Amino acid sequence: MMRRPNPTRLRWRVAAAAAAVLLTGCAAPAIESNYAEVQRSSRERLGADLKWLTTDEARRQARSDVDAALARPLSQDDAVRIALAYSPALQSALAEGAASSAAATQSARLPNPVFSFERLVRGEGDGRELEIGRALTLPLLDLLLLPARARQADQRQQQLRLQAVGEVAQAAIDARAAWVRAVAAQQSLAYFEQVKTAADASAELARRMQAVGNFSKLQRARQQAFYAEAVAQLARARQAAQSTREALVRALGLDAEQATGLKLPERLPDLPAQPQEEHAFGQQALDGRLDVALAKAHLGVVAQEQGLTRVTSLVDGLHLGVQRNSASGAPPQKGFDLELPLPIFDAGDAHRAQAQASYLAALNKAAAVGVQAASQLREAYGSYRTAYDLARHYRDEIVPLRRTIQEENLLRYNGMLIGVFELLADAREQIGSVIQAIDAQRDFWLADAGLQAAALGKPTPFPGMDARPASAGAPASGH
């Protein structure tokens, strides 16, 4: 005859099984949820898809996609896409974020119950008695604080998501800025080569004219000095082009074979028709900054920790044990024991003071981040607008004026009103103006990337708006 199960015992078993499933949980869903949130934010904020390469097949496909993008001149958007879908540095950051997410999940779990077993033999021979003790101990305080620890773990997961979004944003900004510098350096190099060509011509002509007695030693020395300066400028330009190209290779995570096949456009993109308006970077942009959101999330975590500390600083352990002991010839003993540390030597006041101070530090840190964020946005927009106005000034005023001067001097040369050296000097000055215009255009696109970084909460240094551009244009003419 089958024995009917005890309904009460059955309900306890079902409840225990459900609790075990609920409390143990799984770290994988939290990792996947965090990655999906970071991927969505990347798509919305950066306009590019983030990929986490967790399998060999995914890595092979990513390499194939990168090779296809490198088969043509690399655009700025393609550089960002490669950085977010292939860069080993970013892939490492994503994996580290997943490990931290698993640790946050682990922090919300209960410690495992402890089962202890005792087997004692008393006496010898036929008078030997056997005692067996069994005990199951549960961390009761941890069970009572489980909801608070779960909320704390959720706050930590939010922190990790924001940190991951920041890593992705930084990778995109670095790739964008590296692309701008590499293209600008390559474009400037082409014009420095033209300066060198003009210097070659003037130095050779000066040598010949001195040889036939039509040029003084001083006049030839001036042309030779300009040639020597042009050679030095060209060497620096070549090094700058190589250095910025390698910086781009590192930002994208390309290997040696891919770096060799990297092709860049011949010139930077044109300036936009109109600059972005300042009101677009007001309170809404400030609230959307990652560092502001991260500071608020950190404040939430510290507040949760402070609430837990108020309890655990006084009573840091409470264990409930269920026991069953049996001995030879005696009925079994059943019961429970409760283990509670007594706050005699340590009342927990130091822990509570530390938690209060940490909360005040986080509160003021959040306020400081808000002040800095607003200031950085204003500074970033000021740099952006200055760079735009300066680049447009070179494009619309200085370069056209230099072109007009060159055209007029060419007419004067054809009319034998000026000599060939004056014409070459004017050509050098026009090339120098074009190089300065390239520098101004480069500074604008770097300031544009800096403004995007400031809106994201990842500020980057902005190019200085000096009176003289960084590359200084062509060397001074010798006429």
What does this structure look like?
This protein has 479 residues and is of the alpha+beta class. The chain has a single domain, classed as Outer membrane efflux proteins (OEP). Helix content is 68%, strand content 8%. It is built from 13 helices and 4 strands. The chain has helices at 7-24, 27-46, 56-70, 76-85, 88-107, 140-144, 146-211, 217-252, 256-260, 283-287, 290-312, 349-414, 420-456; strands at residues 114-122, 129-139, 319-327, 330-339. It has a 4-stranded antiparallel sheet with strand order 1-2-3-4. Helix 2 crosses helix 5, helix 11 packs antiparallel against helix 12 and helix 12 (349-414) runs antiparallel to helix 13 (420-456). The longest helix has 66 residues, at 146-211. It is elongated, with a radius of gyration of 36 Å. The chain starts with 6 loop residues before the first helix and ends in a 23-residue tail after the last helix. Residues 1-5, 7-25 and 459-479 have low confidence and may be disordered.
Please give the CATH class: Mainly Alpha
Distance between the termini: 119 Å
Give the H and E element order: HHHHHEEHHHHHHEEHH
| CATH-defined architecture | Up-down Bundle
Roughly what percent helix? 55-70%
CATH homologous superfamily identity:
Outer membrane efflux proteins (OEP)
Strand arrangement in the largest pleated sheet? 1-2-3-4
CATH-derived topology: Outer membrane efflux proteins (OEP)
Sketch the major β-sheet. Answer: 4 strands, antiparallel
Strand-residue proportion: 5-15%
Task: Write down how many β-strands occur, each being a DSSP E stretch of 2 or more residues.
Answer: 4
The overall number of domains is 1
Number of helices: 13
